[in-house]
Write a structure and sequence with these properties.
coiled coil; 200 residues; 8 strands; Penicillin-binding protein 1b fold; 2 domains; alpha+beta; Excinuclease ABC subunit B; 42% helix; six-stranded mixed beta sheet; two-stranded antiparallel sheet; single chain; 7 helices
Length: 200
């Protein structure tokens, strides 16, 4: 059987995912820049040239969003001042308008959504486990492994603090879900960066 890492370790919290959905309605007052910040918060990336799933772009008073769940449909949000004047579904490739909507929901670009409390707790847990593992490596004379682990994990911590996620975050899934269950998967992360063995 072949399975992805995500399917093995599970997805993120459904509650956190649901809490980060952005709902937009024609006539709603919201500043364009505020909406852009909200999109970044749910892991969308701004790219005005290479328009792909999970990205958005800005053209004057028009904000176009390519939902992560869509293969060809994008959303065009047209502003009049700080008010949403029109919401349209468009072909992401040609820009052709395919439908007009009064209301849309924009779902996060990734399943792993967290709030500040969970993120800060996870970082503390990762840092504590890292310190413990570094001491073990140093005691065993594995200085190269310790250096590699320290560099990679500190990079991951910085990404989590700044962006809310990092590559391979599925491996430490349980840290987000339940602090008491985090140790095995963090050990798996540490092991994968040194010996590529995620056994218990």
């Amino acid at each position: 059987m072949v399975a992805s890492v995500s399917s093995i370790f599970g997805l993120g919290s459904p509650e956190q995912y649901r809490d980060h959905v952005i709902n937009l309605r024609v006539g709603e007052e919201i500043e364009r820049n505020d909406l852009m910040r909200k999109l970044v918060d749910i892991q969308f990336e701004r790219n005005d040239i290479d328009f792909q799933r999970g990205r958005f772009r800005v053209r004057g008073d028009v904000l176009e969003i390519f939902p992560a769940s869509s293969d060809a449909k994008a959303l065009r949000i047209e502003f009049f001042g700080d008010e949403i004047d029109r919401i349209r579904e468009v072909d992401a490739l040609t820009g052709e308008v395919t439908a007009d909507d009064d209301f849309v929901s924009i779902y996060p670009a990734t399943h792993f959504m967290t709030n500040d409390t969970i993120r800060n707790r996870a970082v503390k847990t990762i840092q504590a486990e890292l310190d413990e593992q570094l001491k073990k490596f140093e005691a065993e004379g594995k200085l190269l492994e310790a250096q590699r682990l320290k560099q990679r994990t500190e990079y991951d911590i910085e990404m989590i603090q700044e962006m809310g996620f990092t590559t391979g975050i599925e491996i430490i899934h349980d840290i987000w879900m339940d602090e008491s269950q985090g140790n095995h998967h963090l050990r798996c992360l540490i092991s994968s960066q040194t010996t590529f063995n995620c056994g218990r």
